[in-house]
Amino acid sequence: MAIERFCINIEGIVQGVGFRPFVYRLAQENSLHGWVANHPQGVTIEAQGEALLIRDFLQALRTNKPQRAEIHTLNSRATALSDDSCFVIRESIQSEAASDNKSLKKASPEKDESSAPLISVPPDTAPCQVCIDEMFDPANRRYHYPFSNCTNCGPRFSIIESLPYDRKNTTMQPFALCNSCQQEYTNPLDRRFHAEPTACPDCGPQLQLTDVKGDMIANNTDALQQTANAILNGQIVAVKAVGGFQLLVDATNPHAVERLRQRKNRPEKPFALICADIKSVQQHCIVSEIEKVLLLSPQRPIVLLAKNEANQNEIAISVAPGNNDLGIMLPASPLHYLLMALLQRPIVATSGNIVGEPICISNTQALARLATVADLFLMHNRAIARPLDDSVVRVMNGVPVMLRRSRGYVPLPLSLSLPESLESVSLSPLPDLLAVGGQMKSCVAISHHNHVYLSQHLGDLDNRHTQQAFEDAISDLSHICGIKPQTIIHDLHPNYVSTRWAQSSGKKCLAVPHHIAHFFSCMAEHHHLGRAVGVSWDGSGFAHDGILRGGEFFCWDGHADIKHVASLRTFPLPGGEQAIREPRRQAAGLLYALLGDDFFTESPVLRQQFSTSERYNLQRMLSRQLNSPVCSSVGRLFDAVAALSGITTHNHFEGQAAMALEACAYDSKASWHFPFEIINKQDSLHPTQIIDWGPMIRALLDCQKTKMPREDIAAAFHNTLAQIILTITQPFDGYPVFLSGGVFQNKRLTETVTLLLRQQGQQVYHHEAVPANDGGLALGQIYYARCLENPSCA
Amino acid sequence: LGHGSGGQLSHQLLTELIYPYFDNPMLATGHDSALLSIGEQRLAFTTDSFVVSPLFFPGGDIGKLAVYGTVNDLAMSGAKALYLSCSLILEEGFPMNTLSKVLASMSQAAKETGIQLVTGDTKVVEKGKGDGVYINTAGIGVVPHDVYIAPQHIQQGDVIILSGDIGRHGMAVMAMREGLEFDNPLNSDCAALSDPIHTLLNEGIAIHCLRDLTRGGLATALVELAETAEKTFIVEETAIPVSEAVTGACEMLGLDPCYVANEGRFIAFIPAAQAETALTLLRDHSVSATSCIIGRVDEDNKSQVIYKTTTGSERLMQRLPGEQLPRIC
Ligand SMILES: [Fe+3]
Ligand SMILES: [Mg+2]
Ligand SMILES: [Zn+2]
Ligand SMILES: [Zn+2]
Fold first, then answer.
1. How confident is the model at residue B36 (pLDDT cuts 50, 70, 90)?
2. Deepest in the core among A115, A162, A332, A702, taking most CB within 10 A?
3. pLDDT by residue (tens digit) across A29-43?
4. Nearby residues of A218 by Cβ (< 8 Å), 6 or more positions away
5. pLDDT at residue A284 tops 50
6. Which of A20, A191, A300, A394 is catalytic?
7. How many separate domains does chain B show?
8. CA–CA distance from A459 to each of A86, A261, A777 (Å)?
9. Within this chain, do residues B131 and B190 fall inside the same structural domain, yes or no?
10. CB contact under 8 A, A627 and B179
């Protein structure tokens, strides 16, 4: 009987997912001696026993791993026998800094420079069914306790302060385990064996309900009951949720919803809802099988669902005015389960922040910043380590598509496919990169070898608190990854806060054109490497020629050459950013470009949206090109068409007009499209083709004269855009098509284009893992740099 | 060259191209006028060129601008304005009676502010090579011995006083030049600022810093001072007065009044303890009758201006970027 000892080093998602207990039990089963320990880069095991059993053990490590664990690399090698007499979970191995990790080298002397990420911190997950059942079992000691969790569920990224993932490195550090919890924590056969955030009513965090001054009103179960009562009475309660404060009101009470809108200074943007269970969701919305899976997934995102028109009397219209969709999530934490059990009706849950700021995470911050918004505060004494908004997902073409990537998904890395020459890192290691994204919907990313760590959604960088969150996220990511990138990739726009931050960092910088970053973002998440056509349609981004781009087609040969093959015909935006806030102005700019000075006479619908003096001044501004930058943006075309159709004159939030136009088309079965023209430019300059929307707008105005229903016009507009993509991409036979940019958050357009292209035998991809909007830019920036920049020059 | 708007590009032109050639401690202070010690006297010396289209606009003309502009620059260092020089660059064929009107306006403005025009020059350029008339003026004034006004003297706890509503000059000129029409009349705020400043000094107000809000507007002045002084300012949008006429015109054009030029407004940094007295004194003068506190100097020294908007959101103010490119994606 041969006795052997192996040292096994595992990297991947192996911390916070019950991996060490799993290893422990597996070692017991195979009668092995030795130890397992976390270290900042993963897990190390030394196992000694009968050779055959060690083989089984190694095999089972991969095949039987815990549900949420992911093994990226597993290296094992024989090592000298030792005299340990049992198998133990050792203290985590600390390393001072990743740059001089002596202890790590001791643990894994032959750690090769693989392409695996340094460490994977698990994201936060909703309570598992066992924990939920315990919480509602009067006989259980955690009955009605809102901070229950186990190795399979609970808070992770939101409480982790440093690595490795041990209780003392989380915000649970101040809570000393009671005897009962300690026993569970140390019993290898218990579900809570080494569950770092484990807690119970005796030793864990406690709830308290306070008034706006922070004075205690009630605590624990009493606080829950009074919170529920207050919400049922129409009050606004700020609740400390997983990744920050949420503002909750009764969604069935129109006055309460209206009050929240006023107090939050958010007149029209849709609110998300929490429903108690899947049945309740099905009462209000049409839920497909995949949507049901998403709603119930441990990530617990907000899922955009089509309203069930037959049953819309209960939820206040003001929750999502003018929208066919509702954003709904199921309870994401034990606290939400307990609250929803008391409330038993849909509840509005919106982020607890001042418009444009990151979500509040500390009790003092919430009391200071939300005092004018909330009536009551349901808080607790477990700190949140970083702000994490609720993630938002929409199903398109039968697959989940991320609209906002945050709680539940971050900080899991995405992997890249790279040119083979870049993969042979043993010769010239790839430099670590930091990508700082755009300006709106900021999200940053760090790459190490071929893994990319994207930060959570951070918000709009105009706000100084968001700027702080942006800087925090960068240091957070580099701390988690243990690397400090010396090269920064940023957008080409000179006035983005992120661009300025990069340029003043003193590090080597690389600027990537906005729409090329979008294109590469979509290719990156589909691991595409090689020739491709990119459709980058969004609001507006900066290009070298000073035109605000957003209706672009690119062709990549898979190597160094990216051609700008087509672009939307340009039109002016009278008043710049003010025009973006007023779709009616964009319509004026569009008509001016088409018809010249007398444009108002051609559109009575638009004419009546302005006063006489506004019309006069607009015409002056347009003819004298006064603060009227030109754009080639499809996002702006959406706005203009929404105003021309009399649907939306002002945007109270980003994307409002485009959403309204999509909603308007919802009931239309129209499958025809407007005419359009593709103009081939004679000169050799890029883009070589211009998409002329002129014939479409003329036809649209004619349709209005014949009183065609608005929904058919809206549907035909979507169809026209799909036809444009079909026409432009047709000559690129064998080039897969990638759809990116905020416009492709539009489900109708995305699904129509996908169908058309697939019918033609074209391969087509849209975003899934990262948002099509600027939240996905950072990924594209990194992929572009990886594919096109010589890595050795960094 | 889009470097004339007084924002980010002007700043670059100065720091990257011009200053390096004339490197000396005087220029480096980044002040509107230079302070020169000659014997026992401290003199303030400044120069400015005036290019405006149209030459006559509601509330003023290029002649008034040329005198007030230089008088105001001197006043911002606390100096008493004494002597003025004037250079005219005329375009061939410029109507003589228009020139007379400009000169009459200058003379009137000089008399009113007590400055003497003591030297001058006239050049004529070919037709098509000038916009009618350009005027350059330079001025000399005396700074009292106990007056030390400079960005470096801004201190934590100072209040920031704004002398009146903003954006009038820029909007009045633009509306006229571009042929825009608004229900509420737009008038330039073009005025001399020396009287209220001297009142403050005479009454013993310890002014730490002054800045007139010309090109680039309030925002650019604040950002430049915060950077020079290495201090953090907190400014409240709700506290900044803007007339209905200017608000309407700015909204129409998509411009932010904080970046629009003024010709008769200044900000003053004053110890909080003297704020009320200073406000009372300022409100006694018609040019600063609606003076108010718009912000204060904060504790941390981060060289930034925090701008609290009406919605409660806090932004960091920036210089006027070269072009106002929308950043909304
Ligand atoms: Fe974009
Ligand atoms: Mg000046
Ligand atoms: Zn659990
Ligand atoms: Zn306990």
1. confident
2. A332
3. 999 999 999 887 789
4. A208, A209, A225, A226
5. yes
6. A20
7. 2
8. 51, 19, 13
9. no
10. no
CA distance B212 to chain A (A): 25
> For ligand 2, a single-atom ion, which residues have Cβ within 5 Å?
B 48, 73
pLDDT digits 0-9 by tens, A513-569: 999 999 999 999 999 999 999 999 999 887 777 789 999 999 999 988 899 999 999
Contact between A265 and B312 using a beta-carbon 8 Å cutoff: yes
Instruction: Fill in the amino acid letter for B186.
Output: L
Query: Mean pLDDT throughout A85-90?
Result: 90
Handedness of CA A131, A132, A135, A140 (dihedral sign): negative
* Burial per residue of A703-713, b for 16 or more beta-carbon CB atoms within 10 angstroms, e otherwise: bbeeeeebbbb
A614 chain-B contacts, CB cut-off 8 A: 252
Is residue B81 within 8 A of residue B113, CB to CB? The reply is: yes
Domain boundary among B83, B114, B142: B142
Q: Could you give the domains of chain A?
A: 3-107 (3.30.70.100), 207-392 (3.90.870.10), 408-530+776-793 (3.30.420.360), 548-555+565-772 (3.30.420.40)
Same domain, B52 and B189: no
Tell how far the Cα of B86 is from the centroid of ligand 2, in angstroms: 15
* Residue written as token pair 């083989």: A55
Choose the weakest-confidence range: A449-453, A615-619, A734-738, A744-748.
A449-453
**What residue in B sits closest to A629 (Cα-Cα)?**
B325
> Hey, is the C-beta of B313 within 8 angstroms of any chain A C-beta?
yes
Nearest to A328 by CA among A340, A338, A342: A340
Q: Count Cα atoms within 13 angstroms, Cβ side, for A368.
A: 7
Q: Name the residue range of residue B138's domain.
A: 31-142
ipTM of the complex: 0.90
Gap from A89 CA to chain B (nearest CA, Å): 47
Q: Closest-CA residue in chain A for B184?
A: A613
**Beta-carbon separation of B314 and A463 below 8 A:** yes
Question: Under an 8 A CB cutoff, do B311 and A538 touch?
Answer: no
CATH of the domain at B229: 3.90.650.10
Structure tokens at A115: 């392409």
- Residue A425 pLDDT: 46
**Pairing mode, strands B56-57 and B80-91:** unpaired
